[in-house]
């Protein structure tokens, strides 16, 4: 019916957030599913900001949404579309629908509209304006809206990729407003026009939009446009099965980033929320792209599982590049206003490989690295001081001599040296290990002794040991 750009060939998905707040984890998962399906099919992933609600849309919210998408690595394959900028196109479509008899002007008063809505809520017919088939009033310039002239009989089928076929009685679908009295396009109209013009072939979104799909289907049909495939995915609930809220913890993508989760871990976990590939828990982006199909999304709501998120994120931490993790750890510590040595970056680069296996988040990793960031001379814990008996000090002095002569300062070489020293002394590690650990770490959490020393390096390790021995001289 209307002149519009020819849609591109192939699969085109879109993520269309409203900039009225932060990027919610549910929205992030919707974006991810759209991104995965586009990648899986060799198609395109687009982003459209639905900013027609001018009172609630803010620049800060727009920035927060893109910050979240950028952190997740979900970038639009084309220039981002801002819905408000397309209002003239939306109004042009409505004018053509009016001319074709698919829409009509409605001069219902506020009181008449309230009464009609109350009747509909009480079980009466869906809202149909008395102006639907009536001639215009004497003064057609009076404030009015433009409504969609929907069918009053029959049914509308939404053959949903996730929910399956869903049928709506047209008699239950009201004549929705297309243009408000001030000429502003409404959500359902703008969405249809934009999706059509952008060539969107698959509308994958939350199942709270399922009812909108019926109304939007009718607008597509009224304009003679090809329908996209709809896929409505269940919402995310908290661990208790209730709708996700503040009491369940983090909700915004930015909060998860601040808590030390990394993008690849978050992508993996979000993909598992309502979709899966057999028993696979931990997988790469490449695997997710190869496996993902929207028709495999489950119908039941997914539940946020912190333990599983921590496990998956920890697995990706282990696989991440050490230099990148060291940088993330440094930034996390700086955000905490932690006191850091001048060479903190170099120290972190040395310690991260030794401790990352036990961490689930970057914040945990920062805790595991704390021992390496201490500045000499370390303040020893009282229990370490008590362990430094004359016998232990003499034994540590002998160990210090062997360490000083060690030709190679590596994890395996140090492990061999410590075992050999214990055997030569005829004692177990318990006779010197706890005191040595306390000297090297100042009581901070740390890995095995050989990894501690490898992380600290020869000079720092021997320096800390010398400080402790000198304090007992």
UniProtKB/TrEMBL annotation:
Where, by residue number, is the motif 'KMSKS' region? 243-247
Keyword flag Ribonucleoprotein: no
Q: Write out the residues that bind ATP.
A: 246
The chemistry this enzyme catalyses reads: tRNA(Glu) + L-glutamate + ATP = L-glutamyl-tRNA(Glu) + AMP + diphosphate
Annotated keywords: Aminoacyl-tRNA synthetase, ATP-binding, Cytoplasm, Ligase, Nucleotide-binding, Protein biosynthesis
Check the record and name the HAMAP family matching this protein.
Glu_tRNA_synth_type1
Q: What does this protein do?
A: Catalyzes the attachment of glutamate to tRNA(Glu) in a two-step reaction: glutamate is first activated by ATP to form Glu-AMP and then transferred to the acceptor end of tRNA(Glu).
Name by which UniProt lists this protein: Glutamate--tRNA ligase
Q: Name its species.
A: Caulobacter rhizosphaerae
**Upper taxonomic classification of the species?**
Bacteria, Pseudomonadati, Pseudomonadota, Alphaproteobacteria, Caulobacterales
């Amino acid at each position: 019916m209307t002149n519009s750009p020819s849609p591109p060939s192939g699969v085109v998905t879109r993520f269309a957030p409203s900039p009225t707040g932060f990027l919610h984890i549910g929205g992030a998962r919707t974006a991810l599913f759209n991104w995965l399906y586009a990648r899986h099919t060799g198609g395109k992933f687009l982003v459209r900001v639905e900013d027609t609600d001018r009172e609630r849309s803010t620049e800060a919210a727009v920035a927060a949404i893109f910050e979240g998408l950028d952190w997740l690595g979900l970038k639009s394959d084309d220039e981002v579309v801002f819905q408000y900028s397309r209002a003239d196109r939306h109004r042009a479509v409505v004018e053509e629908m009016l001319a074709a008899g698919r829409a009509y002007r409605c001069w219902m008063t506020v009181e008449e509209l309230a009464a009609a809505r109350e009747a509909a809520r009480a079980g009466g017919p869906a809202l149909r304006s008395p102006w639907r088939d009536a001639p215009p009033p004497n003064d057609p310039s009076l404030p009015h809206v433009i409504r969609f002239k929907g069918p009053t009989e029959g049914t509308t089928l939404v053959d949903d990729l996730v929910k399956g076929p869903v049928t709506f009685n047209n008699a239950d679908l009201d004549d929705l407003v297309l243009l408000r009295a001030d000429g502003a396009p409404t959500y359902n109209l703008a969405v249809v026009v934009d999706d059509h013009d952008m060539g969107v072939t698959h509308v994958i979104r939350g199942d709270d939009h399922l009812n909108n799909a019926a109304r939007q289907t009718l607008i597509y049909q009224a304009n003679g446009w090809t329908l996209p495939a709809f896929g409505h995915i269940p919402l995310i609930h908290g661990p208790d099965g209730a709708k996700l809220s503040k009491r369940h913890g983090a909700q915004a993508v930015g909060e998860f980033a601040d808590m030390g989760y990394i993008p690849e871990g978050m992508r993996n976990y979000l993909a598992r929320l309502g979709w899966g590939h057999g028993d696979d828990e931990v997988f790469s982006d490449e695997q997710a792209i190869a496996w993902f199909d929207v028709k495999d999304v489950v119908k039941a709501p997914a539940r946020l599982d912190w333990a599983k998120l921590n496990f998956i994120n920890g697995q990706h931490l282990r696989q991440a590049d050490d230099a990148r993790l060291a940088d993330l750890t440094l930034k996390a510590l700086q955000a905490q206003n932690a006191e850091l040595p001048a060479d903190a970056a170099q120290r972190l680069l040395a310690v991260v490989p030794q401790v990352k296996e036990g961490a689930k988040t970057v914040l945990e990793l920062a805790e595991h690295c704390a021992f390496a960031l201490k500045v000499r001379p370390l303040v020893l814990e009282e229990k370490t001081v008590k362990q430094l008996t004359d016998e232990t000090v003499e034994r540590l002095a002998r160990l210090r001599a062997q360490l000083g002569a060690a030709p190679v300062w590596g994890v395996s070489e140090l492990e061999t040296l410590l075992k050999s020293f214990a055997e030569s002394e005829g004692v177990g590690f318990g006779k010197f290990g706890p005191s040595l650990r306390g000297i090297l770490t100042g009581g901070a959490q740390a890995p095995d002794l050989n990894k501690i020393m490898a992380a600290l390096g020869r000079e720092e390790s021997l320096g800390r040991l010398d400080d402790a021995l000198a304090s007992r001289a």
